[in-house]
Every structure is written in structure tokens, then in C-alpha cells.
Design goal:
The structure is a single chain. The chain has twelve helices and 35 strands. The longest helix is centred in the first third of the chain and has 24 residues. The chain has four domains: about 170 residues, Lipocalin; about 80 residues, no CATH class; about 70 residues; about 250 residues, Alpha/Beta hydrolase fold, catalytic domain (Rossmann fold, 3-Layer(aba) Sandwich). Strands 28-29-31-30-32-33-34-35 form an eight-stranded mixed beta sheet, sandwiched between helices. By secondary structure, the protein is α+β, with helices and mostly antiparallel strands.
């Protein structure tokens, strides 16, 4: 054998060894069937009747999530509903004998309220009006035959509050929305006494009345950047428990005095994170805890009994996050839900009187958490010096070096990613991808300054925060620079499209799921009940007239000539938030240029795919698309 041929043979064997090692590492873990990540839970959404005698849950029937009921302590369940076209969106016990639930049609989000007896009889629609959306304002726990709902029946842009008799179907309007009320709140007696309004387009106003037969009067007006968000009344119905960032950066827990229009007392504040909510004991009439989220959910306890109960549960359920999701009226029996980053967890029944914890059901028993990846918190610095928090998931059994990566910006955008089981992330990690999630500027929970820094920054510094995370991964040696994809839904879909516009060579592939592509047409096609907040959106996103040059520069569909990466687009035909025209535009613009773009439209879906078979189709197509451009390199 001559030296030249021998040298090339050695090099060839080295390359083959590297390829085989790479393939072995990517498939060192067992591939989990795609259906296991995205199928409906075996049983979920457990609740308990007010008297504690019955447990309810949702489970698949004909591949749709329906409501079932069983006696506490029994395994024999009765199916109450038989919906086959669409999952039931949510439900609750109205009283010991009747359950109410919400359902829309084809993803249009015009939810109607239905009622059904606990034995499955007397199914009735209570608010089936054409193109009308139902909101639940108060389930009126102490008034078993009534609820307070909001309907945009009179005017599609606003919701009027009604007291609804769930036996007779009779409705009484409690107030006529003058056109600017965005929310309503009752006191502990079920009387409608608080309204939250948008005035002058961009100012928030808290309105109040002492009695239900009096007119509302304004007691606090602020720019929408400051907020006082009432949670519930004090137990004498005189003051309000609220979260507030008035004259401060972070949301804190306070007592607010409607008579003076001022904060009466600060109950709890965290120097790093917003307080997101306050909980209370209806039976004991005390507040129990304030919640906030660092990289995990956390609580500050006001009540020693509540703290002791959580500590007792966390000790027995070590390794999992613990949440109380429901209780009976006497607060003797509780539904407990666990979860972790590697498990959807389980439901338990906790009998406080007996101090007995009984497992009811694993949510997805087919998921083997030992095969799931760890989701770790990370931080990095943006190019202008902000600290960006996020999460990094590495495929199991693979060295964190030179990996294919899927960058996954969240939707909202004024929301945030949280730690917990994410089926998309686990699916991608199981297929050999590292997944980077980041809470870019504007993400909630980090204070007002961080939130406001996103205003009029769609596609600009918000996008830079995402890009900087990608560069950070490359610098760490974790990401293979030639195998990075970006995938997101809603605003995350917009960030995906903008990412392949402004950094056209950074991404090897992109997946846009119900994403905005044109900021001008997006604002023209928003749901009618968003229109009272349009001036606020102009201040947060941009004014189509005053900021037209900026919006044009940051609308991916208008800059599609810069896109080089292969693109997969998925859209629900009935999406009321991101109209199908958003996806049509970007697909048409790219196909005109001959760019490789795949397009999936589901006619019976809205803002994201809820029907199980559509989820399967989408993620199968995503898997094939990503493998083509990422794994076959």
C-alpha cells in the first residue's frame, strides 16, 4: 500500500469514527414515541365537590378531553360529557350537584358556558350566542344556583357583567360597560364592587362602589405602566388585598384603602422579583401566602398552619414541586398536584383531618422520567448589559459540546418561561437537541423597568437578547454554530421570523407556529375586545402611523428578501389573535423567491393546536423538518 493511499485511509477511518461516535451520542438515549409527549393526559384537571363527596377530572373520550366524576375513595367514574369535536376548555363545581364548563368551536375562542348534573343528566348550554365570548367573573361559592359572568353580547368590544341563574338560565345585567372596563371584581358576599378601566387609551383606572346599587366612582388613576391589581377584598369587605408597583419597580403585596385611594400597608416585597399573587383561606378568613417566581415558583407564608401543611406535603413528595389546586368548602380535603422538570407529576387527595395523603393518578404514566432531561436555570449578559435569565436543557447522556441546538423564545411577549415539565423541550432533547429558552427583556416577573425596556423594541433589542443567548451558547462551546435552529409560537413565532431576517446566516432552520409576520396587518386584525387597548399597544409595540418606518423595518413579511434559512410555518385557520393572513403573507413572500418553506394549516384550530391528532401531525412534521436541516449535515 502506498503512503498516500494509507494516509487517506487513516483519515477516512477517523472521520467515520467521529461520525459514528456522534450518532451514538445523539441516540445514546432511548427514543420516546412522539405521541407520548403530546397525547392527551390519561386524567387531569382534578377537582372536588364543595361537600368533599365527589372527585371530578378530565380524561379523553373519542380523543377529546371530557369531564368525569367519581365518589371520593371509589375508582368507578361516570362520564358527564361526550364532546367529540373539541376539548372542553375548563370546568368547575357550581354546587354539590352541578358542574359548569366552557367550550369554543374550532379554536375561535368564543367560549360558551354549559351546565351538567353530577350524574351526567340535564346538559344545557347557558350562553350559546353567535360570536359571543363568555368570561367567568365569580363562581359565587356561597350562592349555589348563581354565577357572575361577562358577555360581549351587547358590544363585541366590551364585556358586560351578568348574574346568571344556572337553574333557570335567567340573566340580570349588573352594570353596563361604558366601553372602557377591562375587568370586574366582587366582594366576599358576591356583590360586584370593583371595575378596572382603561381611560384615555393608556391610563388604568380603579373604580369602586360601596354597594351594588350605586354607580362606580374612580378612586385611582395611573398610567398603565404603574398598576395596582386587586386580588380580593379583606374579610370585612372594606379594603382590598392587591399587588402593586406604585412608586416602585417590583410588584409587592399590599392592603389598599378604597376610601383614601392609597396603600394602607405593605405585606410582603421581594427585592428581585414581582409578587404574582396572594392566596387565602376562605374558612379561616386569613391570607396564607404571597407567590413569586425566581427560577422556580416560591412562596412567602403569612399563615403558620398553611406553611406547616406545605412543609408536610413537600417532605413526603420530595423532589417535586407541590401545588394545592382545589379543596372542599370546609378545607378538610385538598387536591394536590406535583410536577418537576422531568415529570408531569401526579394528583393526590390530602385529608387534612386524618393527615392522610393518597395518590389518585399519574398524569402521564407512560412518561419515564428517568429518560427525560434536566432543565437547568442559566443567566447571560445582553450586549447592553442586562442580565437575561433562562433555561438550558441538554440531551441525556451527551457531552455538552458542539451540539445541535433549538432556540425557543416564548410567546406573549409579556409573559415568561417557567421551570417545569415542557413536552416540546423534552421531545427536542430526546431527539438529540439542546434547547435554549430565555426570558428576554419584557418578560414578566422581573420588575417594571425590565418590562418597560421592551416597549417599541419588537425585533430590535428584544431580538438582540435572543441572539446574544445564541452567541453565549456558541462561546460556551455547547452549540455547533452550523446546527442552530429557532422555533417559537405566537410572539415566539414572530421572534423566529425576525431572527432569520436580522441574522440570516445564524440559523440553519426555523419553525414559526402561529406567529406574527406583519405588524401593520396584525394590529388591524386583533379581536374586537382588544381594541379598547389599542392605544396601549401602540405605545408598547409601535404606532402604525407615527412609527411606520420602524414597523416596516421590523415586519418579517416586508423584509422576507433577507431570509435564507429553510422555514416551516404552522397556523390555525380560525386563530382570532394571529390571523391566518400573518402566515399566508410570509409563505407567499418566500415562495415567490423560491425559498424552501413548508406550510401546515389546520382548518379546525385557532391559536395553537388543541386537537390531539393535529398536535401529532405538527410535531411529526417538525421532527422531520429539523432532522433534514440539522441532523443530516
Amino acid at each position: 500500500m502506498n503512503l498516500k493511499r494509507k494516509t487517506w485511509l487513516v483519515i477516512g477511518l477517523m472521520v467515520l469514527t467521529i461520525q459514528l461516535n456522534s450518532q451514538f451520542m445523539l441516540h445514546a438515549q432511548t427514543l420516546v414515541p412522539i405521541e407520548d409527549f403530546f397525547r392527551n393526559p390519561e386524567k387531569s384537571s382534578y377537582n372536588i365537590s364543595p361537600d368533599g363527596r365527589y372527585i371530578s377530572f378530565m380524561a379523553p373520550y373519542e380523543n377529546r378531553m371530557n369531564i368525569f366524576v367519581q365518589k371520593a375513595g371509589s375508582n368507578k367514574a361516570v362520564r358527564l360529557t361526550s364532546e367529540t369535536d373539541r376539548d372542553i376548555s375548563g370546568y368547575f363545581w357550581a354546587n354539590n350537584n352541578r358542574i359548569l364548563f366552557l367550550k369554543d368551536n374550532g379554536g375561535d375562542e368564543n367560549f360558551a358556558l354549559f351546565g351538567v348534573d353530577a350524574n351526567g343528566k340535564n346538559l344545557k348550554c347557558l350562553t350559546c350566542f353567535d360570536k359571543v365570548r363568555t368570561q367567568i367573573i365569580d363562581d359565587l361559592e356561597d350562592q349555589p344556583d348563581e354565577v357572575i359572568i361577562g358577555l360581549n353580547k351587547r358590544n363585541a368590544m366590551v364585556f358586560d357583567p351578568y348574574r346568571l341563574n344556572i337553574k333557570t338560565g335567567e340573566m340580570v345585567m349588573l352594570a353596563e360597560n361604558p366601553g372602557n372596563i377591562q375587568g370586574w371584581m366582587t366582594d366576599h358576599a358576591g356583590k360586584l364592587r370593583v371595575a378596572i378601566a382603561i381611560v384615555d387609551g393608556v391610563n388604568s383606572q380603579l373604580q369602586y362602589r360601596d354597594k351594588e346599587d350605586e354607580p362606580f366612582r374612580p378612586i385611582l388613576t395611573t398610567n398603565f405602566k404603574e398598576s395596582l391589581s386587586p386580588e380580593f377584598f379583606t374579610f370585612d369587605n372594606k379594603f382590598l388585598y392587591a399587588t402593586s408597583n406604585l412608586n416602585r419597580d417590583k410588584q409587592v403585596a399590599v392592603i389598599f384603602d378604597p376610601a383614601t385611594g392609597k396603600e394602607k400597608e405593605v405585606l410582603y416585597e421581594n427585592k428581585d422579583y414581582d409578587v404574582s399573587g396572594i392566596s387565602y383561606s376562605r374558612k379561616k378568613k386569613v391570607i396564607t401566602a404571597a407567590s413569586f417566581t425566581s427560577w422556580k415558583r416560591d412562596r412567602y407564608f403569612f399563615d403558620d398552619e398553611a406553611k406547616a401543611m406545605f412543609e408536610r406535603l413537600e417532605k413526603e413528595l420530595s423532589g417535586y414541586e407541590v401545588a394545592v389546586t382545589a379543596s372542599d368548602k370546609n378545607e378538610e380535603k385538598f387536591i394536590i398536584r406535583t410536577y418537576s422538570d422531568r415529570s408531569l407529576g401526579a394528583y393526590y387527595l390530602y385529608d387534612k383531618k386524618k393527615d392522610q395523603l393518597t395518590k389518585i393518578q399519574d398524569v402521564s404514566p407512560w412518561i419515564d422520567e428517568s429518560k427525560m432531561a434536566d432543565i437547568k436555570p442559566i443567566t447571560y449578559r445582553s450586549r447592553d448589559g442586562l442580565t437575561i435569565h433562562g433555561y438550558l436543557t441538554l440531551p441525556k447522556g451527551v457531552a455538552p459540546e458542539n451540539l445541535p441546538v433549538v432556540v425557543n423564545p416564548h410567546g406573549g411577549p409579556w409573559a415568561r418561561d417557567n421551570w417545569g415539565f415542557n413536552p416540546e423541550v423534552q421531545f427536542l432533547a430526546n431527539r438529540g437537541y439542546a434547547v435554549l429558552q430565555m426570558n428576554f427583556r419584557g418578560s414578566t416577573g422581573y420588575g417594571r423597568k425590565f418590562w418597560e425596556s421592551s416597549f417599541k423594541q419588537w425585533g430590535l433589542t428584544m431580538q438582540n437578547d435572543i441572539t446574544d443567548g445564541v452567541y453565549w451558547l456558541i462561546e460556551q462551546g455547547i452549540a455547533d454554530p452550523d446546527r442552530i435552529a429557532i422555533y417559537g409560537a405566537s410572539y415566539g413565532g414572530y421572534a423566529t421570523l425576525q431572527g432569520v431576517v436580522v441574522t440570516p446566516t445564524l440559523y440553519a432552520a426555523a419553525v414559526d407556529y402561529v406567529g406574527v409576520s406583519n405588524l401593520f396587518t396584525f394590529m388591524k386584525t386583533i379581536p374586537p375586545y382588544w381594541k379598547p387597548m389599542l392605544d396601549m399597544m401602540y405605545e408598547m409595540v409601535g404606532d402604525p402611523e407615527k412609527d411606520s418606518a420602524q414597523l416596516e423595518a421590523t415586519s418579517p413579511a416586508l423584509n422576507a428578501h433577507r431570509i435564507m434559512a429553510p422555514l416551516f410555518v404552522a397556523q390555525g385557520a380560525n386563530d382570532p389573535r394571529v390571523n391566518i393572513a400573518e402566515s399566508d403573507q410570509i409563505v407567499e413572500a418566500l415562495r415567490k423567491r423560491g425559498v424552501d418553506v413548508e406550510y401546515m394549516v389546520k382548518d379546525n384550530e385557532g391559536h395553537g393546536f388543541r386537537n390531539e391528532e393535529n398536535r401529532f401531525d405538527f410535531y411529526r412534521a417538525m421532527e422531520k423538518f429539523l432532522a433534514k436541516y440539522m441532523m443530516d449535515k
